[in-house]
Amino acid sequence: MAARETLKLYYDYKSPFTYVAMAPAFELPEHYAVELRWMPFLLRIKGPGQRSVYSDWKAKYSYMDARRAANRRGGLRILGPQKIYDSAPALVGGLFAGHEGFFRPYSEAVFERFFRRELEIDVPAEIAKLVDELGASGEAYLRFRAGDGARELDASIEEGHADRVFGVPIFVFRDELFWGQDRIPLLEERLAEAGLRV
């Protein structure tokens, strides 16, 4: 069997397209000899009144398009956010969950609850409560957030800049970028061409 190669996936919990891409992304290491590295990347989104009318139209279209993709994935519920979120607390939570071995259930819960408007991803206390609910220590998360977590998030964002990341989800394989959940089939072609099918 081929040695496992690194496949990066830059994500942000406020991205509906990353939510749609999550389940098929988790399946990639089952079919290809890759180690999937989930890389938090904080999107900087402008709010209404800070962007052009064309950007507003694009934002509305993007949510419609994400819902179409979600319907094809079994009807994931995606409600648009009611404000602009700083998702750093949730992203640091993802780093913490990765260290503690519960990244997938944490991410599934964050995405599902955020897009149902049941979780404020910018409130550390809510993230700590979710961490407790998932069987880990919310207090440990808060300590991590105040120390190594913030530094690790900054390092991941810097690595994203080096990889020329401009949005999420973006997969990076051998320095080639694949943007959006609809590029997963093309990514799989590249992985197969590289002899990584298992």
Describe this structure in words.
With 198 residues, the protein is of the alpha+beta class. The protein has one domain: Glutaredoxin, CATH 3.40.30.10. The protein has 7 helices and 4 strands; from the N terminus they run βαβαααααββα. The chain has helices spanning 16-31, 53-72, 88-100, 103-115, 124-133, 138-162, 184-193; strands spanning 5-11, 34-40, 170-173, 176-179. The protein has a 4-stranded mixed sheet, sandwiched between helices. Strand 3 and strand 4 form a beta hairpin. Helix 1 (16-31) packs antiparallel against helix 4 (103-115), helix 3 (88-100) runs parallel beside helix 5 and helix 5 packs across helix 6. The radius of gyration is 17 Å and the shape is globular. The mean pLDDT is 92.
Short synopsis of the structure:
The protein is α+β, with helices and mostly antiparallel strands and 198 residues long. It has seven helices and four strands, in the order E-H-E-H-H-H-H-H-E-E-H.
